[in-house]
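Protocol step 4 of 6: structure prediction from sequence.
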Amino acid sequence: MDTTRRAAAVAGALYLVTFVASIPALALLGPVLDDARYVVGAGADSQVTWGAVLDLVNAAACIGTAVALYPVLRRQNASLALGFVTSRLMEAAIIAMGVISLLAVVTLRQEPPAGADDASMVTVAAGLVAVRDWTFLLGPGLVAGVNALILGSLMYRSGLVPRIIPVLGLVGAPLHLAAVLASVFGVNSQTSAWSAIAVVPLFCWELSLGLWMAFKGFRAPERERFQRVHDERRELVAV
């Protein structure tokens, strides 16, 4: 397996991991996200902790996709390739912040401060859940849209995958960003029909990209061209 095929396989597998981890994570985190009195109730700490672990897996996979693709993408545009790595790192960091806030709610429920009453506990927990809600909006929301614009443009220019795939990202990213920004300014809700519709093209973009890279790899003509350019550069350096 050549280096570009290996990069495609790893990146594709990690993109699929983000789906496998993030979707069940949202369901597992439901009790702490939906129950305002979770911190003073019976709790479902094991379930919430597993959801947090899956979110961390998702964050790690985000970083992994960028690291795996960078050696290939930099041959197309080094600045954009570095920008993609940076934005994926930022997305992962924001996700991790949300995980920490929810784990803090679990700790608060298990070990309540001495003398704290239910009302104060609920207030603090609500603040921590609000932090997580904002990280979800800004990480998998806003930064993910930026990721799609950067990677979509790189994939479209290079022809590494069929161009219909990056077109989904380039069309879906502005729609998704518009919905997210509307939510940031209170015009739209994260759970509205508009938000659900706007995220569909972006969902299809990441899923189709992950499947193509994992099972098909990059398109052969482009692999050969990138390898030839790489070999020519090595020869120039050697001289």
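Step 5 (inspection) to follow. The chain has eight helices and no strands.
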